[in-house]
Amino acid sequence: MSVLILALVVWLVLWALNVWLAGSALARKGVGKALVPLIFGVAILVLWEGLVRGLEVSFVILPPPSLIAAKIASSLPVLWQDAAQTILKGAIPGFLIGCGAGVLVAILIDRSPFLQRGLLPIGNFVAALPIVGLAPILVMWFGFDWQSKAAVVVAMVFFPMLVNTVAGLQASERMQRDLMATWGASYLQTLVKLRLPAAMPFIFNGLKIASTLALIGAIVAEFFGSPTYGMGFRISTEVGRLGLDMVWAEIAVAALAGSVLYGIVSLIERWVTFWHPSQRH
Amino acid sequence: MTRALPVLTVLIGLIVIWYAAAVWMNSTWVYDQAERAGTTVTFAEMVPQTMSQDRPLLPPPHQVGAELWKGLFGQAITSKRSLVYHGYVTFKGTMMGFGLGIITGVLLAMAIVRFRVMDMSVMPWAIISQTIPIVALAPMIITLSSQLGLSGREVPKAIIAAYLSFFPVLVSMVKGLRSPDQMQLDLLKTYGASDAATFLKLRLPASMPYFFASLKVAVAASLVGTIVGELPTGAIEGLGARMLIGSQFGEPLIMWASLFASAILAGLLILVVGIVERLAQKRMGAPA
How many domains, in total, are found in chain B? Predict the structure, then answer.
């Protein structure tokens, strides 16, 4: 019981600290902006630990963070093997192929307004469909190894990417296009020097959506058949054995990987579209 | 008509490609069969045989259509083989998750707009929460709730669907509740309006267009969440479970039919939300 009270007290103190930080002058600086969410995260972990230990919840149902951390530390090789299979072999190649194909097809259909009017409504509709449902079919076609996972990812990221790129290619203004025309720029020059750069904010929007979809696709596909390693495989088998600490360890890895992937895309975005209002500070 | 023509052309093009791919992918099986029987088949003999296999690698459109028709209208809608029945189970889960997601998203947005500390501490985590692949959590949410004595799969499914659908609502509502400009806020202050009155009379009405715009995204996300929630660990009801069954028993036609059933469901949901959005806009006096 005392553990629970201690955890609650720590949580309240951290929360009060956050309230004070948010009201102070520090909140406008970078340090405060990073510190407040960090303290919030730590407070949640303390509360979690305290609740589980204080209320004597069975560790089988909800393992405390300390146990999960210990599990992560003790099974690093397995976690790495799973992550390499699912993320490096499944998600990333699928992400690159799918996004590349989306951008390429968008550029190709850009020259034909007829195709655009036909493909865009369909693309918009397909982008809203539960494409994960294709996973069992693609696993049947491409086998259990990473090829089928990459294929699911390609199918998931292609349409959001296509729709965003097509919207982006229309983002340059009439006046800017006319200026290019007065300079006698060819189609290719206009594309490379004006329209693609103007489309970049949209393309990166699509890439960000795709980066989270990629992990989902790669993991779901493993539920339908995989080699005896991989994050989706590990999660579904460990849940069956009630090894929830291992499941949480995999979730932590997935969260980390998802955030890193998203972060990398954001960093490249800042570097490529430094001119865009949303990136200026 | 000018809008329908290109869409129809592309659709017909897709169906032609589909047929071609079906012939190409299913031909291997036909040639194998022929070789085993010690005969040879010409191309003209092969093509019809790719159109009506029991377990095709890629079923041609008319086979999928027939299976879909059989699933939707071929039997009583209470039958376990009826796609209407499974679709209804999925629809129920989607709506529960959608409702839960809307409530969570709106409440969080209200707290975030009202309290600066909530904005600073919760908002970054809300963004991070969406980079976590929910499917990693899905099997565990299901086991957890069964351990806690919640039998049935509705609650875990709704939680997964809500997890995916609350985020678009949250982001749009935060934007919407902050959309009144300083002048309008100042005016209410000169009236001596309380916080609650400012919220009810200014912020909430101003946020409505943003709210409805987010609903379409949220309902699609909710459906994906529900289907994912039906996939792992032995569900027997719902479109997701139907796909899993088709995959495990090697019945591609079942998989394709449920895939298209879920596409139809998604289309209907988005359509209905669009209509509600338009009605609400009209009611609030937006130009038609």
Answer: 1
Q: How far is A256 from chain B (nearest CA, A)?
A: 8
For A281, what's the count of Cα atoms within 13 Å in the CB-facing half-sphere?
Answer: 4
From B200's Cα to the closest Cα of chain A, the distance in A is: 25
DSSP state of B53: -
Please check whether residue B74 lies inside any domain of the structure. Answer: no
Cβ–Cβ pairs < 8 A, chains A and B: 163
Residue corresponding to tokens 């909430």: B204
ipTM field: 0.76
pLDDT digits (tens, 9 = 90+) for A117-142: 888 788 877 777 777 778 888 888 88
pLDDT digits (tens, 9 = 90+) for B229-276: 887 655 677 888 888 787 777 778 888 888 888 888 888 888 898 898
- B12, closest residue in chain A (CA to CA): A118
**Structural domain that includes position B278:** 83-283
Alpha carbon distance B271, B269 (integer Å): 5
Write the CB contacts of A136 (distance below 8 Å, at least 6 apart in sequence): A224, B243, B244, B246, B247, B255
Q: Most A CBs within 10 Å: which of B131, B148, B216, B271, as the mutation test of the A interface?
A: B131
- Top-level class of domain A72-279: mainly alpha
Q: Is residue B151 part of a domain?
A: yes
Confidence of residue B105 (pLDDT cuts 50, 70, 90): very high
Q: Nearest CB to B220: which of A121, A128, A232?
A: A128
The model carries a pTM of: 0.82
Closest CA to B141 of B162, B158, B156, B161: B156
Q: Give the DSSP letter string of B206-224.
A: HHHHHHHHHHHHHHHHHHH
CATH number at residue B194: 1.10.3720.10
